[in-house]
Amino acid sequence: MTIKKIGLLGAGTMGQGIAWAFAAAGKEVILYDIKQEFCDRALNAIGKSLEKSEQKGRVPAGTKAAVVSKIIPTGKFEDLADADFIVECVFENMDVKKDVYTRLDALLKPEVIISTNTSSLPITEIAAFTKRADKVVGMHFFNPANVMKLVEVIPCLQTSEATLDVVTALSAEIGKTPVRVKEGPGFVVNRILVPAINEGSQILYENLATAADIDTAMKLGAGWPMGPLELCDLVGADIALAVMNTLYGETGDPKYRPSTLLKQQVRAGWLGRKTGKGFFQY
Ligand code: 3HC
């Protein structure tokens, strides 16, 4: 199966990075969001970032033009109709997913695989919204998705082996390393990483160290590229909280209870880089 055209739903933080990753690997990307301006903004951010990289000589001249020209922003759902493969990264809410999957199922060619980048919702339930549940699969990228090499490939109960093979091959084709993980809350990375972010938040809540010192401690004491609080600001406190709520809700295990401060940050709208303030100011 040749996959040339990727239909990407959601131009938020992850959508932006994923569009970039596919475009950089030469795939055409139809980037859809409910408003075209969200896609334009994402495309602009990719362009600016690549411009800087070009100026610094970190990527060859012409990279920006090549990548940006592969991404077609749209606010029209029907523009996804001739996609060969879908990556969905819309809002992490089951009602929103239900609406999107029902419409996608009706719109797409029957053979098209729909992958979801969800980090907190059960893929088995998402697949059940479609009549092609065997072609629904988790394809979990990591932020910043244009840089991080891992893709978790997650079969849900209904996913076929053929679908898994396609997603695994596609991940490798765009220069990522796929790992297969059975469907379980948090998969591998988030099950380990997000409780660590949560613990960083709780340590701050208990006033044991400053935010900067918590991050310095983990960078210098454990070799992390970023501290847990800076990382939370990168992924978004809302996403981190959604993952904690899933881990807690699905397992019922109190070791996963979300930190009070993390909940407060979300209530305050201090989500991190995307809102200009999180544990740190941007
Ligand atoms: N967006 C896009 N590109 C970025 C970026 C961002 N936010 N931050 C850095 N980059 C790019 C730079 O442009 C550079 O690319 P180039 O060499 O092609 O120009 C490259 O990344 C390296 O950047 P730097 O040298 O400036 O920075 P660092 O060496 O400090 O690396 C990092 C930055 C790769 C982000 C590193 O700090 C890191 O690995 N941090 C941890 C990230 C992580 O853990 N991610 C997983 C989060 S969990 C998740 O996403 C799952 C979800 O479901 C919650």
In short:
It is built from eleven helices and eight strands. With 282 residues, it is an alpha/beta fold.
* Main structural class: alpha/beta
In whole angstroms, the N-to-C terminal distance is 44 Å
Lateral arrangement of strands in the main beta sheet: 3-2-1-4-5-6-7-8
Major sheet size, sense and barrel closure: 8 strands, mixed
What's the total helix number?
Answer: 11
Number of strands: 8
The small molecules bound here are: 3-hydroxybutanoyl-coenzyme A
> Roughly what is the average pLDDT, rounded to an integer?
97
Number of domains: 2
CATH class of the largest domain: Alpha Beta
Uncertain stretches of 5 or more adjacent residues: none
What is the CATH architecture assignment of the largest domain?
A: 3-Layer(aba) Sandwich
Strand content: 5-15%
Q: What characteristic shape results from the CA principal axes? A: globular
Defining traits:
282 residues, alpha/beta, Rossmann fold, N-(1-d-carboxylethyl)-l-norvaline Dehydrogenase, domain 2, 2 domains, 11 helices, 47% helix, binds 3-hydroxybutanoyl-coenzyme A
Give a verbal description of the structure.
The protein is of the alpha/beta class and 282 residues long. It has two domains: 5-180, NAD(P)-binding Rossmann-like Domain (Rossmann fold), CATH 3.40.50; 190-268, N-(1-d-carboxylethyl)-l-norvaline Dehydrogenase, domain 2 (Orthogonal Bundle), CATH 1.10.1040.50. Helices cover 47% and strands 13% of the residues. It contains eleven helices and eight strands. The protein has helices at 13-24, 36-55, 63-69, 94-107, 123-127, 161-173, 189-205, 211-222, 228-235, 237-251, 260-268; strands spanning 5-9, 28-32, 71-74, 85-88, 113-116, 136-140, 150-155, 177-180. Strands 3-2-1-4-5-6-7-8 form an eight-stranded mixed β-sheet. The chain is globular and about 55 Å long. 3-hydroxybutanoyl-coenzyme A binds at residues 49, 53, 58-59, 119, 142-144, 146-148, 190, 193, 225-226, 231, 235, 239.
